[in-house]
Amino acid sequence: MSGNRNKGLGRGLRVIAGFSVVVALVACSSFDSRRPGALEQYTAKEIFERGELELERGDGEEAAFYFGEIERLYPYSEYAKRALIMQAFAYHKERDYPNSRSSAQRYIDFYPATEDAAYAQYLLALSYYDQIDEIGRDQGLTFQALQSLRTVIEQYPDTEYARSSVLKFDLAFDHLAAKEMEVGRYYLKRNHFTAAANRFRVVVEDFQTTTHTPEALHRLVECYLSLGLIQEAQTAAAILGYNFQSTEWYEASYALLTLQGLEPRSIGDNWLTAIYRQMIRGEWL
């Protein structure tokens, strides 16, 4: 995941025009930046180049300060617009996601029709996405990441950010399914079969395109057999066999059923048989 993140941010650096010779001169000048009024003697261009220099040095926090000062001192300049998107990037570089998100959102609000609006929306999405590496984190971040990534995909479909967002969207979607599976396994280990089955059902119904669907179907077979819901168990195994016959999960489900003299087949009238009928008509998976 971190590789995709770095690649996306690397592409984002194209908003930087490049470091000119003037940057080197600015580096040698004396910027007493924290003294009140000190930066007022410098032009927007000079302050912007100082911010770029701090980025090159690896100090995103200091860079964000300079870019913010441009917005304060020269609010109607072309540099203020460029500085705002660069401030969002600088904060993100420092993993200051709330401030990165705030700067990116301001850019979108003030300059929605510019070329860099797509990158601002992408940075906003990343401010959520880059915090969902661990399954145990608040899933609200994952939902917000999905919503923001969808916005990039739908509003800027022909950009490189949309292509990157599609990949990240799939990973975030898979992440939500992984969380449901984790909770379902927790209940299953403690023999809370109904609670476990409810979690695995969510994966089958709402996250059927993820990598977790085969296991979810097998766990449903386990849960339903334990609950004495034979028809549901057979139907879950039938769906599993139709779509994932070569997997270890189907082999395990088949073994469980044959031990009880049963076979995978769609039977009865339940939510799984409805899915099975849809699947046969090519409307599922």
Describe the protein in words:
This protein has 285 residues and is mostly helical. The chain has 2 domains: 2-175, Alpha Horseshoe (Serine Threonine Protein Phosphatase 5, Tetratricopeptide repeat); 191-280, no CATH class. It is built from 14 helices and no strands. Helix 2 (21-28) packs across helix 3 (44-57), helix 5 packs parallel to helix 7 (117-129) and helix 8 runs antiparallel to helix 9 (160-189). The chain is elongated and about 85 Å long. The relative contact order is 0.06. Mean pLDDT is 87; it is low at 14-28. Part of the outer membrane protein assembly complex, which is involved in assembly and insertion of beta-barrel proteins into the outer membrane. Its main location: membrane. Residues 42-237 form the Outer membrane lipoprotein BamD-like domain.
> Per CATH, what is the topology of the largest domain?
Serine Threonine Protein Phosphatase 5, Tetratricopeptide repeat
β-strand percent reads: under 5%
Order of helices and strands: HHHHHHHHHHHHHH
Specify the structural class: mainly alpha
> What's the level 1 CATH class of the largest domain?
Mainly Alpha
| Alpha plus pi helix count | 14
Q: Report the strand count.
A: 0
Per CATH, the superfamily of the largest domain is Tetratricopeptide repeat domain
Number of structurally distinct domains: 2
- Terminal residue distance: 25 Å
**For the CA atoms, what is the radius of gyration?**
26 Å
Give me the CATH architecture of the largest domain, please.
Alpha Horseshoe
Assembly form of the protein: single chain
